[in-house]
Predict the 3D structure of the following.
Amino acid sequence: MHEWALAEAILTSAKQIAEQEKLKEVTEVTIKVGELQQVEPPILRFALSQMKSDIFKSAKFRILKAKSTLKCRVCGTAWQFNFKKLDKATAEAIHFVPEVAHTYIKCPKCGSPDFEIVCGRGVWLQDIKGAK
Amino acid sequence: MHEWALAEAILTSAKQIAEQEKLKEVTEVTIKVGELQQVEPPILRFALSQMKSDIFKSAKFRILKAKSTLKCRVCGTAWQFNFKKLDKATAEAIHFVPEVAHTYIKCPKCGSPDFEIVCGRGVWLQDIKGAK
Amino acid sequence: MVDPRISVISHRLSGISRIIAVSSGKGGVGKSMVATTLALTLAKSGYRVGLFDIDFTSPSTHIILGAQNVQPKEEKGLVPPTVHGLEYMSLIYFVGDNPAPLRGADVSNALIELLTVTQWGTLDFLVIDMPPGIGDAILDLVRLIKRIEFLIVTTPSLLAFETVKKQVALLCELKMPIIGVVENMKMDKAKGITGETGKLGLVYLGEIPFDPQVEDAIGDVAKLLNTAVGKKIRQIADSVILAKKRAP
Amino acid sequence: MVDPRISVISHRLSGISRIIAVSSGKGGVGKSMVATTLALTLAKSGYRVGLFDIDFTSPSTHIILGAQNVQPKEEKGLVPPTVHGLEYMSLIYFVGDNPAPLRGADVSNALIELLTVTQWGTLDFLVIDMPPGIGDAILDLVRLIKRIEFLIVTTPSLLAFETVKKQVALLCELKMPIIGVVENMKMDKAKGITGETGKLGLVYLGEIPFDPQVEDAIGDVAKLLNTAVGKKIRQIADSVILAKKRAP
Ligand SMILES: Nc1ncnc2c1ncn2[C@@H]1O[C@H](COP(=O)(O)OP(=O)(O)O)[C@@H](O)[C@H]1O
Ligand SMILES: Nc1ncnc2c1ncn2[C@@H]1O[C@H](COP(=O)(O)OP(=O)(O)O)[C@@H](O)[C@H]1O
Ligand SMILES: [Mg+2]
Ligand SMILES: [Mg+2]
Ligand SMILES: [Mg+2]
Ligand SMILES: [Mg+2]
Ligand code: NI
Ligand code: NI
Ligand SMILES: [Zn+2]
Ligand SMILES: [Zn+2]
């Protein structure tokens, strides 16, 4: 349940945006979770539902999953990250700090750990809908 | 005339691409030069014309200028870089290595040197047209 | 798309009274040694202290502490384990002894992630052990933790001090508070930097002797606190405790 | 949009016989001292030698060389000035004594720019002085200069050697050639790392004594070459000259 900390970040950030946009009530928050970090939508949703208050009272949380694309800086190969291949401890380490992927994952073509996490890294706030 | 080295890079890179695309002749090369580096199109054009050979014999070089946008990572301010404000030595340093802008330029709002060069940094190869 | 993490960081650090970055443009001047020993000394004096190693690609504090078989606990975030009295956080929990080849953007991202999810709780001091250089780590700390205070470590060598001067110039320009300068690995005959420090308008916090015994104390905290280095840092800790935050 | 610079780098380096990166995961172990003294020694032996300082945010080699009032010449690129017999390139030509707060992506870009425009001409050796850590600089060198050879510097300290081990693990995995390991700042009583180096399958190139005289020789090249450090590096230079490129 370290997702609780991420959920709190989402609510804090969403609240700031809602205030900027002068929303009195937030009806929908769209969140994107990248596959690399393996955040489970049900866990995140539970955390969000436990913490939501005031302007979020009736808010729905849409959680979209984003595939994770890695791209090798040495040979240019792009590939989809398949976390099922990782052992449990490694998967958990990447779950906490996605950047440690550079310690465990190599380019499937040239073996380099020097790849870019093009997309699907962590948790993003994509959209907020509400009433003024 | 350090532009000569950049022109050589452009021709080398354009040639590689032309080979990949199996072009027998290149008719047009579109280049984008960012304002930050203050590369003068006439100088670059002259260097390109001096060096062009074989597949580039009848190539035209289109050189587009790109405004340089800097964005502060601390306060979020985005601004257009105005190199006319710089003294000659500073302008020349940035001309050679655009990143040293971080030594001389500060965010106009908060004074931080921690800004992103969003666009208009250096020299880019935008497009190649030719015949197979 | 908005990165939600940044917004929660100041809240996450809100239970911490003072955040001190042990820093130096130069590598190998003893940042990790000073940061670790300072944190241990403050903890021994009864303060609640955290130690955060953000030299992600070349961490040292876990070796100095002899930290082994510890892991953070997953509980509404990551709760750092207590190591020799310190709430201790490091990337080594996630990479072990393996290399962590991280580019600057990755260092930045990992730092933001750990600041987002680490539950430090209530602390009197959070001591941060920094990587050398003027790169992503220091720029992000300045950007994300406005109230951070810097403790600068140098050696008497011209090579170290010239580099430190640049870092000080940067911090001054950014109006960041500097507690003072520690002169580490001072040899008997070495010409000191007391005067130079004064010229920069900085507080000279004292010199730590070059002590060959320190090597044997790596991994043995009790021994470390009893070396000449440990004893000197006790005095420096007093200055740190008393230091008001001040812009240079 | 294609970055045209990458394509010309190997051509730009084609007149150079050997490219040697003096490297260490750890800061302050003497990379800059070894790189500078090695380059000077090779030049004194009659080789054509370049020295390239890529520790952009904390450069030291210009101070060791006492390089002053020199600038590259703009001529179909940038031609490095000759400093004490070395074709010498550093970011200090462009930033002077001012801080250069560069994030990793900026370090990477500046490195690529300088590799693109620097006209080294014909050289027997290009010695590269590296920043500490495992970040953008080393990853870019490995990516852009496939034939680069590494010379690893460490001290006898556990803190240095543990960090160096990680860097070696990375380089081995990347199949990069390592000339060998130099043990710097060896004190008389210190337990050496000869055995450990052997266990890693690396060549031990020798120990350089800790020599307090070195500080006085900073900025004075003739004096530097005459210190115990300078003399020892003369022997190490012979091993470097003889070393065949070898994957570890
Ligand atoms: N006062 C001292 N006397 C002797 N050795 C020291 C002293 N301070 C640090 N060291 C040693 O110097 C080296 C660099 O110290 P470290 O704390 O790792 O520096 P940094 O974190 O700045 O890279 C280590 O081998 C450490 O054991
Ligand atoms: N063999 C040596 N004996 C004494 N001092 C040394 C020796 N080698 C390096 N130094 C000193 O150690 C410090 C770190 O050296 P430096 O070359 O700057 O390391 P790095 O480039 O790895 O950061 C400098 O103050 C330098 O003068
Ligand atoms: Mg350290
Ligand atoms: Mg605890
Ligand atoms: Mg150095
Ligand atoms: Mg010359
Ligand atoms: Ni979790
Ligand atoms: Ni020019
Ligand atoms: Zn690859
Ligand atoms: Zn700003």
